[in-house]
Amino acid sequence: MLTKSFTRRGLAVVTAGLLVAGMAACGNSDTGDKPADDGKLTLGFSQVGAESGWRTANTNSIKESATAAGIELKFDDAQGKQENQIKAIRNFIQQKVDVIAFSPVVESGWDTVLKEAKDAGIPVILTDRSVDSADKSLFKTFIGSDFVKEGKLAGEWLVEQKKAATGPVNIVELQGTTGSAPANDRKKGFGDAIAANPNLKVIASQTGDFTRAGGKAVMEQFLKANPKIDVLFAHNDDMGLGALEAITAAGKVPGKDITIITIDAVHDGMQALADGKFNFIAECSPLLGPQLMDLVKKVKAGETIPTRIETQEGTFTSEQAKAALPTRKY
Ligand code: GZL
Fold it and tell me: Are the C-beta atoms of 315 and 257 separated by less than 8 Å?
């Protein structure tokens, strides 16, 4: 006959066993499965890297907005490598996040992993940069700038500035990351715009990978190989800021000997513009966080959202930069 104490002890062991079995059935955070539903939405975000002031501002906007929106953010920094972004997206799928968002470092090579997300029933939002997938069902929307327009605005400003030129105006171009949407599109928009004046010629064009170091190194090469450079068009402020060092070291006055046009309008770029070292900036806003979190909630709720959401932005001359700097958010 079982003693009372034994029976009680045996009952306690059986109950504990049932509890453990029940918990295992709900998934285990150690295996990366989504924890028991705490009601919070989970967003998996794969970021390009930390290559520029723009990227830092964009990352801050996403992290701050996720906190403010009460969304649990799983954030991955791909350090500029597509394979790291693909790995991160696969991890998000395995972790059964509610929504996946990412800024694709390059335009091509995403169909396979995006189909895996679609097959797993996880909606994807593209932010900042888009992809060249023919299958538009692989993502819910693309929220970001029109990079062709940014390049066009830069080119149109130069055409106006140089309309009285009677001889060749030699332009060197610092391109963004090879294969990225901003590099491809800004180059196209700028090239199409300056075709209006045959005196405007791009005599050298090379990637500086959106970094200050890249801009400086490539500008040094441009200066060594080209005795007459009249204009620098840099696809972002950071490469332009790196180029300033090379231009000054070569004994030339930036903003005067060489007209400098960039894109982004981050703080240091706007300061260079206000100081007369840059001459024109086409803005590209990194503050996509609030809109992204709103989209995450709408997508999860099954609401229909626009397939393309274009961020609104402007342009700046030196005087406009001086006026805008005190209230700029980044
Ligand atoms: C543009 C963004 C670009 C910025 C660069 O939306 O993808 O990448 O122009 C950044 O500064 O590195």
Answer: no
